[in-house]
Task: structure prediction
Amino acid sequence: MLGNFSYHNPTKLYFGENSLEYLKDELKNYGKNVLLVYGGGSIKKSGLYDDIVTILKDCGKNIAEIAGVMPNPTVEKLNEGVEIARKNKSDFILAVGGGSVCDYSKALSVSIHCNDDPWQKYYIRFEEPECEIVPVGCVLTMAGTGSEMNGGAVITNHESKLKIGHVFGDDVMPKFSILNPKYTMTLPKYQMIAGIYDIFNHICEQYFSGEDDNTSDYISEGLMRSLIHSSGIAVNDPQNYEARSNIMWTATWALNTLVAKGKSTDWMVHMLGQAVGAYTDATHGMTLAAVSLPYYRHIMPYGIKKFARFAVEVWGISKDGKSCEQLANEGLLAMEKWMKEIGLVMNITDLGVTSDMIEGIADATLILGGGYKVLNREEIIGILKSSM
Amino acid sequence: MLGNFSYHNPTKLYFGENSLEYLKDELKNYGKNVLLVYGGGSIKKSGLYDDIVTILKDCGKNIAEIAGVMPNPTVEKLNEGVEIARKNKSDFILAVGGGSVCDYSKALSVSIHCNDDPWQKYYIRFEEPECEIVPVGCVLTMAGTGSEMNGGAVITNHESKLKIGHVFGDDVMPKFSILNPKYTMTLPKYQMIAGIYDIFNHICEQYFSGEDDNTSDYISEGLMRSLIHSSGIAVNDPQNYEARSNIMWTATWALNTLVAKGKSTDWMVHMLGQAVGAYTDATHGMTLAAVSLPYYRHIMPYGIKKFARFAVEVWGISKDGKSCEQLANEGLLAMEKWMKEIGLVMNITDLGVTSDMIEGIADATLILGGGYKVLNREEIIGILKSSM
Result:
């Protein structure tokens, strides 16, 4: 049953090959001191950096920069950004990159005017911002996290071996995001594939929870079917614009709150994957892929009906006289086949996890309510060992 | 392929049995002179009128009223509303009712401060508003039109026998909408069923266009599957909250611009249905149902691949060795079976159309680009005759 909820997503999206044309108009609505945030510099190779700096200068903006935002943005980098933003009186943040750059920019937006320690306040005590929030706009270069249309911001603390996400409210969501599928085509294939699984798992985390048969589940099935279709094309032909554009659009809707509306959600694969990430610094999507099947096979008996539905509605497996258990198993086998076909990392050993890390990763795994089963420490260790 | 587009939907939604609780908070953001708009008075029988007036008074609002908004709001009623709003210096419109009341309120919102004749400006010349737009909030009592989260506003001119919709932009969309499925449960079954088909056809109008295989089509298929599932439950058990809540949520997403993103659309069933409505004043959803199958059977050969996909993905018809044509036909037969099962009006004769009206209805039918085929007058007459 659809429970009580509210829905509001103020982010304005510009999608397509011509979408950067709208940046100039949007910039008119925001401050003069722009903080340009980006990652390892691939946007300089691609020429996107120059295009954006030209637009910012044409708009008469003062530009300060934060470069080198890493795949798993650290608390040290966050604190460094706060210094730079304060020194430059930044009143607008333009994030140019993938999910990490967008996440980092949102974390920064609630930290610049925060009098408390941001890590302690937002990631340990999970408090909401009371301070002024600096508006953020995004130019997305990777499809996966959905960060372009949500309030999520994951930050990693290597010292305490924690990778934690805080989902902030409407007012932290990007004011606008520019989505040009062409920008995602310069990504290494490994990153593209990791992004595809991140998208798929975002949908799974919201789908595998509750016995309901509600509209959100039907929309999730549509998104999964679209992603499975497009990913098959993209892995063989990464320059296929149609496939890359559908993957990019699916990523946005997989994690902008819509498909979670009116239902419970899970998110334990993300908790496990993030703990693996905190220990290995491995690519986010691959950490999710590596723990997914052991996790889903473990919880399957507790949500057997939904797993059977997944087999039929998402993978098109015929019901004919099969038991729920049989269908559920066939569904996860179809998912495993697809995961291997697109080239995902299927175990945490390949991501650098060694047996001596298992206890620590288990301790670093945040235990949530769980879609069908609240895990205990023994179960987490069991799932991690099966993921080796 | 997903073309270039922008997406922005600022409407805030409150969904569920407790959603009216949020009205008080929302009212704080708007003016003191509230114009309360409603229909035939069913909200007085249900007690909703009293609940809302109490909340408005508690918030210290001045209340002016426009009652008796009819199922197909007329241009005379619009002009009458403009007078009342001006006299009362209304600075906020609260629409309490179904799609007609919401549509009417949006048309009013762009007419109150308009120095031109609203019908001529918005419905004949299709111009955009330059004047101040009075903000609108909705409390929805019927699921179907999607008017609660879009900029559409259909107005009927009986004198010139025209029923025309203008889809306005973001700034005309409701600021908030309160969606309580319980409010839809007092509707006569005929109205519930008409609403269900209105929802289904909204999706069809956006789905049956283009050969693309994009995310929007997959989301549309999910919405159609959800609606088919819930409508089967609701027609047998109209008090089933789960079914009614899923129908209500599906209605919102069927026509809030999402599933049209990046693709072309059709809307000819609405053009035909609205012309029938202008002549008969019949219930909107029933006019769509009565012309749909003759229209879709007529255009099927021009979009055969999509109609075959519709059969497989929406109706679960097995492909096994069937031709596109065979699958496409089976899909429309499955749709016809479902339409009859839920009790829709299947011909325009039952809606009061007589043969002497056909020529006039054809003349009143706005000819759009068409999803797969631009119709000519002869074809329109043919479709109308097949709908008798």
In short: The CA atoms of residues 232 and 348 of chain A lie 24 Å apart. The first helix of chain A runs from residue 23 to 27. Chain A has a mean pLDDT of 96. The two ends of chain A are 38 Å apart (CA to CA).
